[in-house]
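P.,

For your records, the input lines for the assembly:
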Amino acid sequence: MIKVENLTKKYGGFTAVDDVSFTALPGRVTGFLGPNGAGKSTTMRMMVGLTRPDAGRITVGGHDYLDIPNPGRHVGVLLDASAQHAGRTGREVLALSAATMGLPSSRVDEMLALVSLTDSESKRRVKNYSLGMRQRLGIANALMGDPQVLILDEPANGLDPAGIRWMRGLLKGYADRGGTVLLSSHLLHEVQMIADDLVMIGRGTIVAQGTPEELLQESGTYVRAVEQEQLVAALAEAGIQANPVADGYRADAESVQIGAVAAKHGITLIELRAADGGLEDLFLELTAGTQRESYSEQTGGTQA
Amino acid sequence: MSTQTALEPGMIDISGTSRPSLAKLVQVEIRKMADTRAGLWLLIAIGAVTVLVNTLFLIFSKDDLPFLAFLQFSAMPQGMLLPVLAILLVTQEWGQRTGLVTFSLVPHRGRVLAAKFLAALIFILAAFLVAVAIALVLTPIAGAADPWEDVSGPFLARIVLALVLGGVWGFAFGIALLNSAFAIVAYFAVPTVVSIVTGIWTSMQDKLLWFDLSTSSSMLFNPDGLSGKEWAQIGTSGFIWIVLPLVIGWIRVQKAEIK
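Structure tokens returned:
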């Protein structure tokens, strides 16, 4: 479990992370979603003691990260797959971590096999690796100590679709065995496929969190009927606003309310479901607002 | 307490694992210096240049060289290259951004720095032993009348001290600047500038020696030993160029954000 409470980090006048609180639960994959520069990486660095927060507290498995004697054995960390010595071989990168954690070198071979890096690939220098191979190496490094918690910053970056599917299976399996997974992404589709819970961040503040289903509810319902105009009028009468989308309407209400209105007026519904791309709309809506805000504030800040 | 926290869901029992020992971290740091092409070649170069310099002197010198002469030949290239090695030990974590992994695995940064410092000392001592071995091989070949002239424990210790001072100086610049290029340039430029100033400003020469570490530490190679004043000059210049950057760098690394 990762518990973040009222976390704040400022750089001069710019607040990179502003009073952020959320929990990543064991047995679940938590997606940490936000546009570039929203504060995801800063938050993750603070989790593992690489950046000192100005206020707030983070515990990993109930402990301050700095109090964990051999953190690699409990918390698997991948913050940037490209942050590796270009002149080392992939195998050597893993061997150094294994040595630091006090693990036998046989663990290196197990991890290479787990992430499907072949023997000859593992003997190549990291500078000759594609981004996808670096991600696999980074994931191998994070899983090396058989940790209970995984903290992964943009792990799907650079993976091909097959690689993303592989990672999804890996992380789901890991969470099913009781592990805690926190992974960040700026791509909704990526996270939507993997995550059980979502935490959305924009310009340093949490803008929404919950399961994808919960967040979808907030984004409305898509409805299509034979008697479209009659439906809109009936909904308006019930105080529900409906806006035209594609062939139907998007209404700010739960499907059960709309169904009830339709039944009362004898309207024939053809489609009734959570609004299409609702999460995406929500994500863009939330982050677009915060991005504009941050833009004006940042330009104001540089003058000061 | 640990058993109770282990019962709650999501809590991690950390009682079964122990922190990596300092000896283990030193081993890892030594390995990091040898497992890249650049690092490995630097180590090979230190060994090869030491052999080469001694051989050239053996062939071209007109005198019959004693044991100590060979040790002093070795100290020239080693005195230049060992500080570079000490700098790279630190700065590679920033230049290649491997610090993200290193300091996630060992979040108490002072332990990593201590391991790097000890690794640098081990490399310096190893280089000195190589120099001794070379001198032991070449001395009988050179055939000096008194091959063991001036050899004494204190003098050998002073040669080691000179190498260590140079290496620690590099290490100090490394952690203060956290950038390979800056630190290497600074390490070679600072003594040059100081000795130029000392050379030009003749009226102040005596006083400037208190700030000139390269000149004062070169006095360690004097077989007759050093006066109290000379030791004090090593002390003051060592404080300025080694202790101060070491303290500044230590604080900087503790506070820095690792990105």
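Two observations worth noting. The interface with chain A takes residues 5, 8-12, 14, 17-20, 24-25, 27-28, 31-32, 35-39, 92, 96-108, 255, 257-259 of chain B (CB under 8 Å). The radius of gyration of chain B is 22 Å.

Regards
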